[in-house]
Structures are given as structure tokens and as C-alpha cells.
């Protein structure tokens, strides 16, 4: 490992480590609490949705809340017991706010639900394995808590060529990952192998700071001959930052505003790898985590494996908390952690440390002084930003300048504030500015959405008005045509003349009679429509149109009556009743024959029915001839026998195509589900093509 080249990143600091407080003893199991509080939102993304009810008994590992979107994970019961409450409960946040949660009263049995371990995970399709990780409720255990399955599925256009395992744990006081690597190195390596099989990277790199010699030795022994690169990094804060670790191990820089996946790399924390091992090989969902309990206000600093939802006060009491000595309570480390207002909040998936310092251990910062423009903050910034300029822009709420100076590349590590001689709380300014910008973006998004809705509504109203105007013009044209027909009817020839002597005139009168019937019908329809509109919206224009259409209808009726009187009398239909009766009889005989064939009647009965059907067909032909209508052509075709396999294959193809289209229309559809649907469609098309070519 000494021959392996390592790079460096800009800035960084070397604060006192204080890790010896908690890393001298093995991981202890925390006592089983009587009551667990499980917030529904424990990660970045949409909170889970409860699927249990108050009073319902649950088992350890049972799903109690389902994922509510693509960027979401389910929540599981950390122990067996009864759901006693669903609603607002304390949440580990600096504001002390309440958040939706599920409360479970433990029954003391800690009884597991049935588990589904998978020893041969290489036999699973990648999307199935990915879904197994997602359903285990795993989110990142070392950072902001991004859902792991989403991170693994978020492939860039290029392939992931490097998998990076983050064991740096650079934050002072925190030793949870250190003890985990020492005591569970075999499980960690197995989890890395699962990720490597799923992602298929070209190389796997594991980064650990050199202040963890025991963890390094344990991992070396567990790795054996595996082709994973173990890289020992010089101790420097914040080497555990995702972008900083990428640069340390590979020399490549993640572009501004980008992610490691943009340069073909993927980072996972060591705790997340162990959770993946537990989920796949043991079938255990994420219901507990390793958490560091440290600070001089504790009699027994240590690392414990605690159930999610355990009240923080109970964990600190287990470590011997002296509340009189505790100056404040910090969740996380002293650099990136935040102060909790009370001990009632529960442990969540992202809670890797509870720090209870005394006032002398972590004294409050002195009052801030004006910036002296020394530039120490810029020298310490690991993201190569200009903290001094960002500070001034944040004070002036100059959001465009903040964006131009890459505010959102700030990882809020606190290095700038640590070295500031004026004791300026720079990170607080940056966090506030980020929140302001996000809020403004949301407002702009809502305003843009409202504008689009307004424009679409105006367009719909415009089209509706154009349609109404077109209908008014159509009614006016119909009224004009009716008037013209009335005028034409006055010029009809003398109806007293013998029609036999005027054969062409008789044919013309019949054609004109047909045309006038159509015009009269259209005028009547237009009148009824106009009357309905008048009843709904009475306006002078509509009243005038209705009056005009009524006159047009009367004129059309008179014109039709005049032409009808002049036309030759219609030849009475002959044998209409016999023709109708013959058609009905034929239909009855055909139905009787089909029923008999379906019921499996004997040949004698079927022969009799077929003769009756033939007789009915001859009777229909005779009736058609008597009515001067052409006899229908009787065409019999032999149907090909039904190919049941072809029908089944076509049905499967139709269902596969419909399911894929439904998923493609759903913006929240999971990529694994889409890939599975595409695979199913391709397989259905292949099977149908093979069958048709036989």
C-alpha cells in the first residue's frame, strides 16, 4: 500500500480528534426501550406512508410504512410490540419541531417476523437484487441519508468504473465506523462484494484514515486475496467528504454542481455496506445502527448498537449522562452536527453520534467580529470556494452572486468557521442563504405553474368562443338556404299536368323532395340547439337568431309540403310484412341450430334443424324477389380451427405492451420495473415470432 499513489485536496484542517474517548471498548447492545418513536421521514426524499393501524401488533422487521415515491424507502418495526400512536412526535432537529411518526410499545419479546435470506444473490437478476435492498429500508448511514437503491440505480450515460467505500470517518469524536470495521470486517467485505457484483466496476477502492490502525489491520485480514484496493489516507478533515475522497483516491475532481457518478464513480459508506450484507444474506431490514455516545458529560463513552426509534435520553442514560455537566447536546460531530433542544427526540437512520460535551470541553464561540479579510477561510475551504465573498453576498441576499460563486458546492464542513479569527458563524449564513434560494425557487416554480394553467385556460376559452361563433354562422347559413328553397318552391311547374307526360320532371321532384326533407331536418335541429342556448343564456342576439331559425323552419316545411304535393304518389310497398316475417324466421332457425350445435345435439336433430334453416333461407329469397329487392348472397366459409397457443401468445404480448406503456407514462416509475417490463415485452414478441414461423 505504500507504493500506491495518493492525491490531496485543497484546504482542510486538523482539529483535535477526541476519538479515544469512545473507541476503547467494543460495541455494546443498547437496552431494549419500552417505547419506540419512528419518524416517517428519516432520509432525503418523500417520507414513508403508514400501513399499520393503532392497536395492531407488529413483529420485529415487519414493514410498518411503505415507500411513497421513487426517492423513498419503507420503514420497519425495530422490535415486536403494539402500535400505540400515529401522529406528530419529537424529531431530531435543531428547531425541536414535531414530525409524523409511528409509536410502538415494546412487548419485551423482540420477536422477529419471518425473514427471507438469499445466500446465492448472484442467481438473482440485478433489478430483483436492487429491489431487495430498497425494500430493506436502507439509506446512507454515513451522510445525508440518500436512499441507497436510488443511488445504485442512478446510472449516468457512462458506466460506473470505480466503486469507492468510505471508511475515512474524519469528523472528531465519532468512532462508529472505526469500531464497525474492527468488529465486523467480514460482513463489510461481503457487503462490498454484493455491491461489486451489482455494479460491475473496474476497480473497488476502500479509503481509511491512518488514525485507525486496528480497523486497517482487520480489513486487510478480511480482504485476503480479493482484488479490492485498501488505501490508507493521511488524517485530515474533511477527507470523508464524497468529493474530497474521490480526489484523494483517484486524483479526479467532481465538476461543480455535479456528483461522483458524473465522472464514473460511486461512493458508499462502510455502515451502508454492512446493512446491505444483513439485508441480502440474512434477510434483515434496517432496524438498528451503530451510534457513538461520547463527550466528557458521559461517565462511560462508548459505541452502541441501538434500535431505531430509541429515545436519545435513554441512550445517554445508558452511557452515564450527568445532565448537570452537559453544556449542550449535539447530534453528529462538533464540526457538522447540530444542537438538539431536548432529550425526547428518537434515534434515526442518519444519527451516527450523540455528543454531550461540558462547557470547558467545547466552550461557546466568542461574539463575532467584523471580517478582517485575512483569507484564512479560503485557504481552509476543501471545495476551493471563496467563503469571505459568499458571506458578504449572503448578508446582502445577492442570490445571483451566490449562485455564480457556487454556493451549493459548499458541503457545510465548518472548516472556514473553525479557522476564522473573527469567530464568524459562516456556515450558518450559508445554510440560511441556501434555504432562501430554495424557497424562492419553489415560489417561482409555483408561479410558473400558475401562469401555464392560466394560459391554458385562456386558450380553452378562446377555442370555445371560436366554436360558438362557427355554430352561429352555420345556423345563419342554414336559415339562408331554407329561405332560398322557399323561393324556389314558388317556381314549381303546374302540378295538374299529367306526370306520365313529364318523366324527367317526376324524377326531379322526387330528388328535390328528398333534399328538402334533409334541409327541414337540419333547420329543426339548429332551432332546438339555439333554443337550449337561449334558455341557458338569454341574450338579444340569441333571441333574434331563434326567431330567424323558426321562420326558416316554417319556410322549409312549406317548401317540403309544396314539393310533396307535386310529386307522384309513392308506390305502396309490396310484401313488406312477408319479407320481415321471413327475416325473423331465418334468424330464429339460425339461432336454434347454433344452440343445438353448442349443446352437442345428436345428428338427427341437427339434420332436421339444418333443413329448417335451408327452408327459411329459400323463403327469404322468395320474399326478396316479391319485393323487387335483390336476394342476399349466401356465402359460406369454413373457418380455420382456433390456434389456442397463438391466441395465448398474442394475449401475453398485448398485456406486456400495455403494462410497459403504463409504466412509461408514470414519471415516478422505478427503473428496475421499467427494465423488467421491457424485457417481458421483448420475450413476448420473440415467442410470438417463433410460433408464427413454425
From TrEMBL:
Residues annotated to bind [4Fe-4S] cluster 2: 381, 410, 413, 416
UniProt subcellular location: Cell inner membrane
Pfam families hit by this protein: Complex1_51K, Fer4_7, RnfC_N, SLBB
Entry-linked InterPro entries: 4Fe4S_Fe-S-bd, 4Fe4S_Fe_S_CS, Ion_transpt_RnfC/RsxC, Nuo51_FMN-bd, Nuo51_FMN-bd_sf, RnfC_N, Soluble_ligand-bd
Major localization listed first in the record, in broad terms: membrane
Cofactor(s) listed: [4Fe-4S] cluster
Keywords: 4Fe-4S, Cell inner membrane, Cell membrane, Coiled coil, Electron transport, Iron, Iron-sulfur, Membrane, Metal-binding, Repeat, Translocase, Transport
Sequence segments annotated as region (Disordered): 661-694
Any single GO CC term annotated in Swiss-Prot or TrEMBL for this entry: plasma membrane
Keyword field contains Coiled coil: yes
Cofactor annotation comment: Binds 2 [4Fe-4S] clusters per subunit.
Coiled coil: 430-488
Superkingdom classification of source: Bacteria
GO BP field: electron transport chain
Positions contributing to [4Fe-4S] cluster 1 binding: 371, 374, 377, 420
Function: Part of a membrane-bound complex that couples electron transfer with translocation of ions across the membrane.
Similarity section: Belongs to the 4Fe4S bacterial-type ferredoxin family. RnfC subfamily.
UniProt name for this protein: Ion-translocating oxidoreductase complex subunit C
Species whose genome carries this gene: Azotobacter beijerinckii
Encoding gene (name): rnfC
